[in-house]
Amino acid sequence: MTDAEDVSPELPDDVPGARFERRKRAIGLVAAPVAAVLVAILDRHGPAPALTALMTLAIGWWLTEALPAAAVALVVAALAVVLDLAPPKVAFAAFGSPLLFMFVGAFFVAEAMKVHGLGDRLAAAASRLARGPRSLLVALSGAAFVLSAFMSNAAATAIILPIALAAAAGTSPRYQAAMVLAIAWAASMGGLATPVGTPPNLIGLGQLRAAGYDVGFTDWVLVAAPIAIAMLIAMWLVLFAVFGVQREAVTLRSPAQPRWRRGEVSIAIALGVAVLGWLAPSLVELLAPGAAARWTKAHVTEEVVAILAGGLLFVLPGGAAGKPRPALTWDEATRIDWGVVLLFGGGILLGDLARSTGLTDTWGRALVAWTGASSTWAVVALCIGVAIVLSEATSNTATATLMAPLAIGLASATHTSPIAAVLGATIGASFGFMMPISTAPNALAYGTGRVTMGQMMRAGIIFDVVGFAVVWLGLRLALPLFGWG
Known about the structure:
Layout lengths: L17 H25 L6 H16 L4 H14 L5 H6 L4 H19 L1 H11 L4 H15 L5 H15 L5 H18 L8 H12 L6 H27 L18 H26 L3 H9 L2 H11 L17 H4 L4 H20 L1 H13 L4 H18 L2 H19 L3 H12 L10 H8 L5 H26 L7
Helix pairs in contact: 1-2, 2-3, 3-16, 5-12, 5-14, 5-16, 6-7, 6-8, 7-8, 7-9, 8-9, 8-21, 9-11, 9-21, 10-16, 10-19, 10-20, 11-22, 12-13, 12-14, 16-19, 17-19, 18-19, 18-20, 18-22, 19-20, 20-22
């Protein structure tokens, strides 16, 4: 349901780039503090030199992954107090943001899906729909796309890859390369469709809400899901063209699936409750505007729904006959990635401080002066482009943490829509298609040995360019319909 594994993907020693990653982390551990001190000296007449230094330190460690991302977030909060940027109650209150609990509830559902194998059932069902090599690639990557809207992209990739490799056994190396890339990239894109699909989405939403813009679950889906689907279709076309996917002898078999187990039924119920709850404010507004709609919007919030739906899993049955157990035990629940929750809190704190000190406005004006961007869609193009470039070098979460506040500053400096700018930056942060080190799905795909570095980079740079156009055009068409463009 989230892309937790993208925070710091670990590469096997035999993957090209692993040695580079280790050196990058060692250099970053020292270079980031040095850079922070230099920035503070150079920016001593700026609006908040201490905050500029702290952001330089955090971004340096996040980009180089010198320390665990969650540890950096906690250090940020502590240093914010030491540097007199915020009192303790303010600095650490960011880790209690309501949106964090949307993560927690979503993680509970995703963990239960892994425990009971609901994702494997979906993957097997998708493979049974295939009638040829292209339809097999489409079906399996489509399954990865759907799964990643409800669990981490790395988990979705790990579920689908073995099925895809078995189905593609005996085919040409080019077809196998296209298949593993399709699974990895589709998992990265599927997270765009819902607010809970990937951490950057909630980071962007959090920054918009802090700036006074209320973008709800339904609003996000109506805008982002069509863009994600368009990206999926574009990916298929790119892979078909680059790898010449046409006639292949594929194995169109999938393991027989047992009848639905209690745990799977319980997860489906909890997921249904979550989706219905997230859609409820919009549905009530449509059917009964007025007091009922206002009450629903105020009380049936995304984080409340996520916690209630996740909490159902501790009540609904999950064991076989004679072996009673809930769909999710607390021991299983503690396996969720709490580090992402902490990382998100640190990002909220930095964004809040940047706004309150006027730092984002200063940066926005500087970027406008440097690039000449002045219209809404020039700013959106700038945000998407910078986010895509950063996403190739670091995690999507770190990219979004940097880009979302900066996008608001750019919009403020140009008096354009902050919603358009933040959505562009947020969606662009979930790219990273060129290298194994860009995302965990890429590393998993490369680890199969079916795709070379050269193949990934050639197809990835084409897809980055195509994706940039798809995202920009999608936002250009959709946002004016909501009055946001």
